[in-house]
Amino acid sequence: MNQPAATAIFVVTIAISLLGMYRMPQVIERSLFRPFWFLRGARYETLFTSGFVHADLGHLLFNMVTFFFFAFPMERHIGTWRFVLLYAVGLVLSHSCTYFKHESDRDYASLGASGAISGVLFAFIVFPDHDPDRLPDSVADSGGAVCRRLRRLLVVRRRSRHGAASTTTRISAER
C-alpha cells in the first residue's frame, strides 16, 4: 500500500457515507457541520466528521471519482504526512468559509469532502514539482490534458508577471 492515507480516506468515506445513506441516517445527522452550533454547542469534531459523509450517491460518486484520480498520485508525490495536512487544511478552510457565512443560521448544515478534495485537485494542478507532461496514466486518461493546460497557463502567467515569459512562450504553452 503506497498511499495509506488516500486509501484510508477513500475507504472510510465510502463506507461511512453508504452506511449513513442506507442503514443509519443518524450517522449523517451527527456528523453534519452546523456553523451555528459549532462553538455554541462545542461540536468541534464535526469540522472533520462532516467530511466523511455525503448527502446522496451522486455527491459521493463525484467526490470519490475526483479523489481517486488526484489524491493517490498526489500522496505518492508529496508523501503521506504532507498529503494528510493538505487534505485537512482543505477541509478546515472550506468549513471556515461556511462558518463565517452561516454562523447565525440555526438551520444551516453542510457535509461532504468537496473542500478537501478541491484542495487536493488544485494542489495537483499547481504543485511546483509536477511535470505537466508526465502525469500518471490514470490522470492522463481522465483529464490530464485539462490539468496540463491549466498548469501551463498558471506557470506562464506567473512567469509573465516577472517578465520572464514572452508571447512566443504563451502561444506554445497553449498548443
Query: Helix tally?
Result: 10
Biggest sheet, open or closed, and with what strands and sense?
none
Radius of gyration: 19 Å
Low-confidence spans: 156-175
Mean pLDDT: 82
Which class of secondary structure composition applies to the elements?
mainly alpha
In N-to-C order, the SSE pattern is HHHHHHHHHH
Query: How many DSSP E strands?
Result: 0
The percent of residues in helical segments reads: over 70%
- Which term fits the overall shape? globular
Percent of residues in beta strands? Answer: under 5%
Distance between the termini: 37 Å
Folded structure, characterized:
With 175 residues, this protein is mostly helical. The chain is 70% helix and 0% strand. It is built from 10 helices and no strands. Helix 1 crosses helix 2, helix 1 packs antiparallel against helix 5 and helix 5 packs across helix 6. It is globular and about 45 Å long. The C terminus is likely disordered.
Can you tag this structure with a few keywords?
175 residues; mainly alpha; 0% strand
Please provide a brief summary of the model:
The protein is mostly helical.
